[in-house]
């Protein structure tokens, strides 16, 4: 096992979907399952065909289970699309792709939630059934829904992200429900671990993936009371985002598309900020900055970045 | 076209699922699409995984569309089961089989209903998309839910029928919501057709498939005011039911498993009652009884029975 000989403490990672899940997988190959907790954005969640769809949670679970579609990063490997084809024949909505087996995850979750189970419990059971060892926790059991404020009006996140392919210019973001959402006992327990060694902000979209988590008041308080370094990995590399609408969004909000903007956005939350080697010249001598290869193409890249992040948390170099 | 030369009036058929759908198909091959209305039981409908499942409506639509699974009579031809397999892997409920493409019907319906569409409208759109020409109408847009009262307590219909495989002894039946359910404008319009020529009670289960329709107060009134003969086809042939729990149910209710029991159950509603040739000796000289082959194995059987039923309605012989 890769984790053999691990002598560190417990690790918490906060992430969104595809990009963040890559580092989560790297961490899962370095940190023993019982010492790793991945807290996942729920702001992208929505109901589709009446089913509870949790894109980021499922991407993280599938990725950690080794079941993610390697081509897309989302959805399941070996997926089939009979359902979507049949929906199309009936004139139903086909803008959001739900594969036949991905749909099963949503259906099982929907049924469990309708029976009164918490999203945390359902997620744990699904993750376990697919063979995931570490804890995957929704940021909250209470609904948090990202709303994208655009020139075309307010759009539910998936309408903006998938339906409109991020085309409308963003004027602002809000997270409906976040102000009253509660931290779950499981999330609180993770932060209370006596051997907590690092809190990792994965290179997910700070505004769309990490902010909906941080917007939960109790969660910010837990981080504020932390007893372990918080290490954030820049999602901006070489002046752009590797994936998704981050660079476009930052530009539309009038922000410079640089790691420094992201660091400023996170502010005092961050103890260590990891830049990609491509941006090493931006590191200067700022005490919080570190440099490591952060473009994760292979599994080895994911593991290497995970090792770097943990080394930085321990005050060392990778 | 088989319907070429049709000189008759409009026809209404009331039916449940598989057995009734066979005669509905026969009628659809004899009666032009614009002159046939099939009114379908909704008492079996339920929510599963949060999706609106309408087993009888879908069986009728698939059958009329030539898309039904010929082996089972329910579900779609060429179905795949990736969804169900994945649900099983996740420990979800697999007692009710929903194929990947069948699921699409449920999902599209669920989404449309959530948007405020009536079940009648949604059903018409789905039927049209699959190429069904005649009108397929839910008995009501209001929820009617068959509850099976058993020694093990009250069971939702699908729990009894599929989940328990009809094993619990039936003590009674009730149709929750029926008393306040309203007849839709489309159902009322079908009965108001000036050239209405026949009302057909298909050989569906009288207690489980036809009664939930008849339990809608307005519908009984429409039939009572009918200007066309009502022809019922006995679902009991040779002392038993060809399909489903009818014979067992009748025995459990202390009823003789005979066509006479069914006719007595329908009572004055029926003008003509069709016995299978196997039961010709039971016809006696009762003025309402007619005899015709009613075991529908082939498409030709379905068409022949449809022709017989229409001939009886016209006061003749097939």
TrEMBL record, chains A, B:
<dbReference type="InterPro" id="IPR010115">
    <property type="entry name" value="FbiA/CofD"/>
</dbReference>
<dbReference type="Pfam" id="PF01933">
    <property type="entry name" value="CofD"/>
</dbReference>
<dbReference type="GO" id="GO:0043743">
    <property type="term" value="F:LPPG:FO 2-phospho-L-lactate transferase activity"/>
</dbReference>
<keyword id="KW-0460">Magnesium</keyword>
<dbReference type="InterPro" id="IPR002882">
    <property type="entry name" value="CofD"/>
</dbReference>
<dbReference type="InterPro" id="IPR038136">
    <property type="entry name" value="CofD-like_dom_sf"/>
</dbReference>
<dbReference type="GO" id="GO:0000287">
    <property type="term" value="F:magnesium ion binding"/>
</dbReference>
<protein>
    <submittedName>
        <fullName>LPPG:FO 2-phospho-L-lactate transferase</fullName>
    </submittedName>
</protein>
<keyword id="KW-0808">Transferase</keyword>
């Amino acid at each position: 096992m890769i984790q053999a000989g691990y002598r560190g403490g417990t690790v918490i990672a906060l992430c969104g979907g595809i990009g963040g899940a890559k580092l989560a997988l790297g961490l899962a190959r370095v940190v023993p399952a019982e010492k790793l907790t991945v807290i996942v954005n729920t702001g992208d969640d929505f109901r589709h065909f009446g089913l509870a769809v949790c894109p980021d949670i499922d991407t993280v679970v599938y990725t950690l289970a080794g079941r993610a579609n390697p081509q897309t990063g989302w959805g399941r490997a070996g997926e089939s699309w009979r359902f979507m084809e049949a929906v199309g024949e009936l004139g139903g909505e086909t803008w959001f792709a739900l594969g036949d087996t991905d749909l099963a995850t949503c259906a099982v979750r929907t049924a469990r939630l309708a029976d009164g189970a918490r999203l945390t419990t359902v997620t744990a059971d699904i993750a376990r059934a697919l063979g995931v060892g570490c804890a995957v926790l929704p940021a909250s059991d209470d609904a948090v829904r990202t709303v994208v404020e655009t020139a075309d009006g307010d759009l539910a996140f998936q309408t903006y992200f998938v339906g409109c392919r991020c085309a409308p210019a963003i004027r602002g973001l809000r997270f409906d429900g976040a102000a009253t959402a509660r931290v779950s006992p499981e999330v609180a327990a993770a932060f209370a671990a006596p051997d907590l060694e690092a809190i990792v902000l994965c290179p997910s979209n700070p505004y769309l993936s990490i902010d909906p988590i941080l917007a939960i008041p109790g969660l910010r308080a837990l981080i504020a009371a932390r007893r372990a370094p918080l290490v954030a990995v820049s999602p901006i590399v070489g002046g752009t985002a590797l994936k998704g609408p981050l660079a476009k969004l930052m530009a539309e909000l009038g922000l410079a598309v640089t790691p420094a903007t992201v660091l400023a956005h996170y502010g005092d939350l961050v103890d260590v900020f990891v830049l990609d080697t491509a941006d090493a010249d931006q590191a200067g001598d700022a005490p919080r900055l570190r440099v490591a290869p952060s473009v994760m193409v292979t599994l080895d890249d994911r593991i290497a970045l995970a090792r770097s992040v943990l080394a930085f948390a321990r005050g060392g170099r990778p």
